[in-house]
Amino acid sequence: MPGTPVRQKLAVGPLRIDVAKRMAWFENRTLDLTRKEFDLLAYLAARPDRVVSRQELIEEVWRQPYRGAEQTVDVHVSWLRRKLGETAAEPRLLRIVRGVGIMLVNPRTDESSPS
Q1: Which residues span the domain enclosing 54?
Q2: How many domains does one find in the chain?
Q3: In a domain, 56, yes or no
Q4: How many C-beta neighbours within 10 Å does residue 58 have?
Q5: pTM over 0.90, yes/no
Q6: Spatial separation of the C-alpha atoms in residues 76 and 54, rounded to whole Å
Q7: What residues have CB less than 8 Å from 17, skipping those under 6 apart?
Q8: Is residue 112 part of a domain?
Q9: Quick one: which H or E segment has residue 75?
Q10: CATH number for the domain including 76?
Q11: What pLDDT band is residue 1 in, cutting at 50, 70 and 90?
């Protein structure tokens, strides 16, 4: 959200992010992320357990007007899932809420069904 201060260190379950250093770790291993993958993951991690619309992601992470760019977000989510060792069929952290958006959850506390 515009104007919302971003915490410098984020943690969601086994995921750790240092925003200032632009570094991320999952289960104590460093993640090799592109600039946009890092920005997307940090944005979601700053809003854990909250569904974020693709429109919000395009406007806030990509800093572009939303023009139905769902595929851009979905491709980046797919790349992040691969790097986090999960799949769409067996998500752990990244959940798709059909018709609404994406959320990052703590797999140790989440009791919702996989998406």
Answers
A1: 34-104
A2: 1
A3: yes
A4: 19
A5: no
A6: 11
A7: 9, 10, 11, 23, 24, 25, 41, 42, 45
A8: no
A9: helix 70-84
A10: 1.10.10.10
A11: very low
